[in-house]
Every structure is written in C-alpha cells, then in structure tokens.
Amino acid sequence: MSDRVQIQSKLFRWAQERSRLSEEVLCQKFPKYPLWLSGEEQPTVKQLEKFAAQTYTPLGYFFLPEPPEERLPIPDFRTVKDRGVARPSPHLLDTIYAVQLRQEWMKGFLIEQGEPALSFIGSRTLKDRPEEVAKDIRHTLGLEAHWSRRLTTWEEALRTLIQKIEGVGVLVMINGVVENNTHRPLDVEEFRGFVLSDSHAPVIFLNGTDAKAAQMFTLVHELAHLWLGQGGISDFKELLPSENAVEIFCNQVAAEFLVPAHEMRTAWKEVKDGEKPFERLARFFKVSPVVAARRVLDLELISRAAYFAFYKDYKQAAADRRASGAGGGNFYLTLGSRLGHRFPAAVYGAAKEGRLQYREAYQLTGLSGSSYDRFGRELGFAV
To answer: How many helices (H) and strands (E) does the chain have?
Structure first.
C-alpha cells in the first residue's frame, strides 16, 4: 500500500469534467474509479499517471488542494446573450499553447531578420464602416473588387485567399486535431477558430473539423480581428455571431468582403424564384452555399426560419458526403495545412543555416528525423 497516493476525490471529478469524458468511459479503463471518487480507495502512482494521461491533465494538478481555475490565454468572444461558455477543454488549451509557441518563435525570427511591423494590424476601429474595412482588406491583399469571379469554385477561392493572406505576413494554420494526434479531435461545437494578433507574426487558426464551407467565413472574420488589433477565440452557431460588438463588426466585414451587399441584392432578384437559389449564388460569388444563404439573411431578404431550414439540410448533406468519402490522404500535405506555408519554410531555413537547432525545429513542427526530412521535401522546403 506504500505506493498509493492521497488524492482528493474532487480533483478526479474535476479532471473528468475537464476532459469531457463520461464516467462510464473512465470506469471501463479504471474499474476502481468509483472508489476513487468516493474516497474508499486511492490509486497507485502508476494508476494516477495513466489517469492523468487519459484525461489530458498535468500530473501535478492532482496534488493541489483545490482544482485550478484554467483560463483561456486569449480573449473569449464565444458568449451568447451574456452567458459564458463551459470551461475550455484540454484539447483547445493545448492547441492555443502550441500555436503561441510557434508565434513567439516566428516573431523573434522576423525581428532578427529586420522585418518591419505590419502596418495593417490595429489600423481600424469599431467606429469605421465595415464596408470600408472590407475594401481596405481587399486592397492590402492585392485583390480586385471581383477577384473570385475568375476562379472556378469556392474551394479554389479559399485556397487563393489563404495564399494572399500568408503573402502579406499572416500565418494561417488549419487543424482538426491537437498537433498530429488523431485521437484528440478538436470540437467544432467548442470553437471554429481563433486569432493571435501581433505586429510581426499574427496567426489565424481554423478548426479543421469544421466544414470547409464555413472555414472561408471564419477566415475573413478572424482577418477583420487583426485589422482591429484584437486577438481572441470565436464561435458562431449556424454562422451567426454572438451579441458581442467586436464579433458583430468582424462578421459584417467578412460578409461585405465575401459578398458585397449591393451585388447580392441584384443577384437575389434573379435567382430567388428558381431551383437551388443559394447554390446558384455560391457559384456566382465563389463562396459556399451556406455563406451565400447567411448573407441573404443578413440583408433581410429571407426569414430566419428559411435560413435555418436550409442550414440544417446543407449540414446533413455535408456530413453524409464526409461519411461516404474515402479516408486517408497524404499526411504531409495535410501537415502543410496544419502549419501553413510561411512558418515551416522559416523553420526549415533557420535550421539549415544553423541558426536553429534541429531539436528545436522538431519541437516547433511536431516532427522528427525522417518524417521531418520528408515533410520538407514534400512541400519543397528541403532537397
């Protein structure tokens, strides 16, 4: 019995709730979990280590007198009608910490290289008109007014937009799991994306488990945050914003950037009485059908009931397509989306030149050895 440790039962319950694992799931892996909760028994050191790993909890937390109050390290815009959201999951926290680590390295690298601060960060305020901010963003990215019309699909428009955003100095990372751990998926019900504002190395992170149809809207929404110079985490149910003034503003900028109001009003008159009007609008504006529908709602051209009916059907159809589609894919190309392009290019270059130790490069990319080398070759960073 000497190897057993005295842990307060409330810390076990806190770790369970924090991990969002059910008691049934934990009981299957730890049959004596109910006894730990009641205090009738205590775990061994090895059992506690396994329980900590299973619940993604730092081991030291179990030796605290009270459960710690974990706070998001960035502003939280996910409130709805002045109600807060549940405590952040360990998946979300670990993702933010990993991205912050990469941002901090990239910032130091750019300053060392003599790169100037980005002038557009914090260049606008809530007093500006959303239409003017959208126009300013388009100009900064080097996009003409009807830039998406020359592209074939909205998926192509999304890729083009990401390239343009990274081209002006913003890192864009898309991931649906914590780092490369497929056993730790990110929950789209918890967040759709977040942005870390910085004058040298701003980062936009998109939740890769979200439908690509929604990612474009989130991308531009977070971009508007940078123009305000405000980082934070966002979530909009059914692509609807919260009651927060910053979120409402960024949402208006994103809508105007993707689908200008005067153009939508004209286009809606032409398609509203035909079949699949939102799909037709999507092809015209090169956005997803759900973004097109959302814009029509914004302009009060349809009712909320009509929008939600379409959104529900569209979401179900998208889920059916994902379920029937082939899995797999190229891991290294997927990793390219997870890290973006500018960041790994900088890491590989610094390591190759001897300004960054390879163990640090491995930590920053989440790769090591042959997988690190192959990733560099696949994305053209190494030969």
So the answer is: 17, 6
Consecutive H or E run containing 372: helix 369-378
DSSP 62: G
- 10 Å Cβ neighbour count for 7? 18
Using CA atoms, how far apart are residues 336 and 25, in angstroms rounded to an integer?
Answer: 34
Four-CA torsion 273, 276, 282, 288, nearest 10 degrees = 140
- Over residues 109-132, the pLDDT tens digits come to 999 999 999 999 999 999 999 999
Give me the residue spans of the domains in the chain.
Answer: 9-63, 90-258, 335-378
Whole-number pLDDT of residue 150: 84
3-state secondary structure 222-242: HHHHHHHCCCEEECCHHHCCC
Q: Which amino acid is at 134?
A: A
Q: CA 72 from chain center: how many Å? A: 14
The average confidence (pLDDT) of the chain is 88
The first and second tokens of residue 219, run together, are 């991308």
Helix (H) / strand (E) containing 166? helix 154-167
CA–CA separation, 374 and 358 (whole Å): 14
CA distance 26 to 322: 29
Phi and psi at 306, nearest 5°, equal -65, -40
Count of other CB atoms within 10 angstroms of residue 284: 17
When pLDDT is averaged across residues 41-69 and rounded to a whole number, the result is 94
pLDDT band at 210 (very low <50, low <70, confident <90, very high): confident
Question: Taking the complete model, does pTM exceed 0.70, yes or no?
Answer: yes
Report the sign of the C-alpha dihedral through residues 122, 123, 128, 129, in that order. negative
Q: Which residue from 321, 313, 319 is spatially nearest to 278, judged by alpha carbons? A: 313
pLDDT digits (tens, 9 = 90+) for 288-323: 888 899 899 989 999 999 999 998 888 787 766 656
In whole angstroms, what is the distance from residue 218 CA to residue 197 CA? 15
| Contact partners, residue 103, CB within 8 Å, separation at least 6 | 171, 196, 198, 201, 202, 203
